[in-house]
Amino acid sequence: METDRKSIGNSSNEKVHESKESHSAVGHSGLESHDWDPEFEKKTIRQVDWRMLPLLGVLYAISLIDRTNTGIARTAGMELDLRLDIGERYSIALCMYFVPYILFQLPSNLLLRKLGVRNWITFLVVAWGAAELGMGFVTNWQGLTACRALLGLFEAGYFPAMVFVITTWYKRHETQSRLSIFYVSSLFITAFSPILAFGLTQMHGLGGQAGWRWIFIIEGIMTIIGGIFAFLFLPDFPDKNKFLTEEQTRMVLQRIEKDRGDATPDEITKEKVLKHSADWTSWAYGLMFMSSTMPAYAITYFITTLLFGMGFNVRDSLLLSAPPFIWSAIWGLAMGFASDRFKSRGFFVLLNATTVMLGLLITCYAPSNAARYAGLFIANGGATGGITGTLAFSANNVCSHSKRAVSTAIIIAFGGIGGIFGTTVYRQQDFPHYRPGLWATIACQIMTILLTFTLMFVYRQRNKKADETGEVLEGTPGFRYIL
């Protein structure tokens, strides 16, 4: 809907405080109107891409590996050593991760600007690395559960913080491709996690430790090293960055101001947090995000178990776990660039929800193992596209840093709920097909489809009313929702 938006970046900082109705909310000193050289703009944004996205992707890959490698360790001997085969101990250990993960999302995002991106993220990465390292030395399932809870506590702040930061750097029709690069690059790296884990299990007996323990020990050390790199190279918000020149920073801020009018961060207050938390659209996006993360978590945690149930041995189950994640990275990246190219969000969310349903039905009912395995490719790809699509859909329809911080935290917290569902509805007694869990996941995709149609209808009506009456949307003159 970029053609519907009026220019809002053509006045000085003083005019911002005079009237929001001026349709020229620059909001930051030095953001006067300027026709930037396209090559200069392109070069600067490419510099931002390379400085930010690879490092964020690697750190998130580490996060995903650390939270999901329990499935691999389970098949490598942890289940018997810690007696996780009794009752629902394994599911309890998995679920305990998500309790602090859900609760700490919003507080973490509210601290981000106050403490600084580099300082806060470095602390989180090193802390969850220590929790991961500790999992290599637990002697019972209670210790594993406690370490999982600490892991969830410290990992909670990373993903919403990175989505928050990324969406402040780019124009709205540039966000999904960047979120996809950030997210799917981490998935591509994560795809090789089973292979790495298999190699680490070959250290069995070294130092008197079981092979599965070395998975947690080595990957915990790698995480702590990643935290050091975060401190050295992680960028901050656009207005606080130190790696661009003053002219480049001014250009980045001006193009954001023209796009949606929130280049200047507003103060985060208790009143604003309560107001933004009451916006029903954030909760709708949260349910949609939950529906996307549910199959993603389920496949990640149970793919080796599913393959083992198809008759593959432990080694082959680990090795065959990688290809579906490589495919999901390719699919997610394609969806991100297509969504930005066609300037459409809702359609691609609908497409990916449908793709997840198709893949799950094939996995659930196909007669051959080859077809069931192919279904995992399809479902995993749709889940990845749905995750980045929902995040972009929501981020594109928010103005102000305070609302972005709150809405991002709410939405991603629902991802933790999706993780709980993904680890509990796939019950041990339903092995090896897990049909009740697969149908529960399909039901969530249907909910996503209904919510997406609802949001698209509401946004279309609001845009129409604003065009006819001049009503200001999201407190920003000229702003229009993206469908």
TrEMBL record:
Main localization category: membrane
Record has Transmembrane helix as a keyword: yes
Transmembrane segments: 52-70, 90-112, 119-138, 150-169, 181-200, 212-234, 294-312, 318-338, 347-368, 374-393, 405-426, 438-459
Keyword field: Membrane, Transmembrane, Transmembrane helix, Transport
Database matches in Pfam families: MFS_1 (PF07690)
Positions with biased composition (Basic and acidic residues): 14-23
Region Disordered, residue ranges: 1-33
GO molecular function, one term: transmembrane transporter activity
UniProt topology in membrane: Multi-pass membrane protein
Compartmental location: Membrane
One cellular component term from this protein's GO annotations in UniProt: membrane
Residue ranges constituting the Major facilitator superfamily (MFS) profile domain according to the UniProt record: 55-460
InterPro entries hit by this protein: MFS, MFS_dom, MFS_trans_sf
Protein name: Major facilitator superfamily domain-containing protein
